[in-house]
Amino acid sequence: MTEQYYDVIIIGGGPAGLFAGIVCARNDLKTLILEKKVYPIDKVCGEGIMPSGIEYLRELGITPFIKKYPYHHFKGIRYISRKGKTAEANFKKGSGWGIQRIALSSALLECASSFPNLEIQSGVLAKYNIGENPEVIINNKTLSPKLLIGADGLHSRIRKLANLEAPSPGLKRFGVRQHFKLEPWSLFVEIYWSSGLEAYVTPVSSSSLNVSFLWDTKLYKPSPSRKKLFASLLEEFPELQDRLKKADVLDESKATGPLYQKTKDVVNEKILLIGDAAGFFDPITGEGISLAAKQALLLEKNVVPVLQKNTSNLENALSEYSKKSLNIYRSYQTMTHLVLLLRLWPKLTDLVIQVLHYFPGLFQKLLSVNMR
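Now predict its structure.
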């Protein structure tokens, strides 16, 4: 027996899923979020939100909740070459925020829980019948929503079941992250460049830092030992290693990858993908949260009104969401691809950083283009 309890069911309760839940719930759609993990939910990432992302979070009504938790402003980006050359630029407008993912998860959960027509179930596993009318089976009940949203991350199961996953690309990039108790020495997110490997330092509170590494498996071979992975990567950056040698380690390092995930489309029948589930290229430009938040606002503008009124127009609404979402992703991918070229040629990287050092206005312009 099929019973319909919800207008929208969202699989995945990370930032993208909670963004989607918020825009549905604040428009009076009865919404259910199913998350297999228990809150707060952690994730391996750089934990920096760019100024454009902060603006989208304001539109979603989330920033007052984030301000209840430790976070830290950063005013721009600083590049540091292998030879110690530096280039930095302030954002033209606004500042970015560094915030630990578990703090962001708690803030988003608090915001989402303020909507009475949004139900969030965590620590649960569901089964799915993916077809013309997708069904979700949970607690021996079959739920048939008007729309099923896949927000279940980088290696999305919904994406696979809906036949939206494209063949795996050749680029294999991985990441690892660890937190340190240390007062930030800079109001910039710092990016240290090496051959096929980068280090990222993001202030996430007044007394702690996120240190992350990204590497390309074709260009760099880190230590095969998980326990020694972070330490072996840190050794590639002596200046950074020296800064961190007296800092207390706040947690175990965590790794993730491969990062590049392609999709054929972001919609199929009554299924919609959002966030990393909708495709992900690389975190090097720090746009992950911004992309997910902007997709949620597209969902609100193009799909939610149809769910409120007449679902016979849902196909057209999903098509419009697909077109605009893919345009956003394409723009992000183009800029990210250009930045990724720096990992291939260290000498070119040194030259580019030297040019940006002498022309900070150009660097600032590139940051603005990146944030569109």
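The radius of gyration is 21 Å.
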